[in-house]
Amino acid sequence: MLVKTTLSFVFVAVACLPGIAQNDAYNYEESKVHPISLPDPFVSLRGEAIETIRDWEYLRRGEIVSLFENEVYGQVPGDMDAIRFELASEDKLAMNGTAHLKEIDILVERKGRTIRLRLILFVPTAVTGPAPVFLLINHRDPENIDPSRQVRTGFWPAEAIIERGYAAATFHVKDVSDDNNDTFKADILNTLYPEQLEMENGMRGLGAWAWGAMRAMDYLITDGQIDVRKAAVVGHSRGGKAALWTGAQDTRWAITVSNESGCGGAALSRRRFGETVKRINTSFPYWFTDNFNRYNDQEDLLPVDQHLLVAAIAPRAVYVASASEDQWADPKGEFLSLRLGTRVHREIYKMDGSFPASLPAPESPLHLPYAGHHIRDGKHNLTPYDWERFMDFADQLFGK
Questions:
Q1: Which of 171, 217, 176, 174 is nearest to 196 (CA)?
Q2: What's the CATH code of the domain at 367?
């Protein structure tokens, strides 16, 4: 039963979660952080206590997603007149016979205009029955996802994914919104949803990437070779921000993986550690909705913080990964966000497993039934080590 209060917002104080003075542009010292308060996932906007699964799923989760939509990422419109899939190419003996390659064009029509999104999909031939799948949102050079495999990088180690018994899927964000302030409006924004550009809470770059991942899932659910009950969406850095936004909205993903997503991703904005809201809005004004600019140097006024984005994914699993030398992305803030956000998994859905009180050491993966975490030694990147840990977690979750 919901408990009424007179508060429109209830904040939970977290003494170990600091922020820095607004004048200190880029802080890397924990000694300079100050206690902050975070919005409480268990209190609704009307001050109602969130105590049951029904409270969460029919009240609070929707509130949280709407707040992120309006204040941070913008709308992600789903209306379209038609969607269809065309097999552009196929190789049933790819990777020396270990994989079935399909390149699928996803065509979306709205108001007489069409865009085309290319999905690259390798399915392991050794798997009996439908295979679980990892989808990568790729924002790096297209050679990182070369379907011919003449170029192979650790950023998307498709062969290793296949060897572990998972299908490897990916698309390039340029098909939906270029990662460029001058050209991001091309593709779906100018072509399908131009009205979004006139809205202060309209879709921008990261929302477009999430839209693309959802369209990839629209295809995957039609492919009999894929077990869509066991699907994971993965993103690195800015792609990790988009992956979290995808998982928060689209309940079809069993696992959402954020790799070194930092500010506007997994890291708590109020900490102001490393990259800040003002810095990211200044450097990448096309990623977030216009409303997000209101919180430049004003993070404490945000009605959300990133732990609520993690919470919105519950009860589905969340994995957050960091790198020891990537202080710009605030590994501690990412860990705290994951620990606090997954309180919903533990307290509402009664899932087993608890987090340590302090930040785990590098190369010490933590795999709980509902969440995964690791810090890799090294710099900002997505590496085979990261992928192996993601797959270890999926093996555990899916009972492989």
A1: 176
A2: 3.40.50.1820
